[in-house]
Amino acid sequence: MARADRDRWLALVLLLAVIGLVYLLLVHPLFTVPLREADARIAELRERDARVRSLLAQRPQIEQRLAELDARGGASGFLAEPTSELATAALIQQLERVVGEASPGNRGCAIVNRAPLSGDPPPGRYRRVTVQVRLRCGNAETLAVLHTLESTRPYLFVDMLSIAAQRYFAIPGSAQPQEGGLDVSFDLHGYLRPAPGVARAD
């Protein structure tokens, strides 16, 4: 009698073990895991939808704030020139002024090349004016130039920045090459003031 009871308990334990193994090998990976992943994805989409709805609800306040800034002269962050040609010339003059202030007499920094970026501007309310720039500067002068360009008005932006270290670099007008320094290339751009009556793109 005791042996029969022991056999029944052993059979029950083996049955439970088989059921657990089937669950781990078949039910869990085929049903439980995908359901959990679907629940997590649904929760993520709901959270994203809530953020988007919140931003859309703030659109009238944002547009009103932009209009107030324009009325107070906030548009001074735009390039003042009315055309791309004049704005490009002003952008180059601004670059030359900043480099001259960072390195008087071009002793530690010089403009190697600056050329307007040709091509049709991307469509939109804000027209961008870009100048491709190449400098040869010392480390401190490079930091000063980049910081000044991006921290003054009108707002200017440095993009496509490439910096290569040089053991020696020549400064135009200097007979002796400077030891150390950087070969710096980047695109410098600003935005023209939007024309009156041009609507914002949705």
Automatic annotation (TrEMBL):
Pfam families: T2SSM_b
InterPro entries xrefs: T2SSM_b (IPR034756)
Taxonomy, superkingdom: Bacteria
NCBIfam families to which the protein is assigned, alphabetical: T2SS_GspM_XpsM
Name this polypeptide is given: General secretion pathway protein GspM
Species for this entry: Thermomonas carbonis
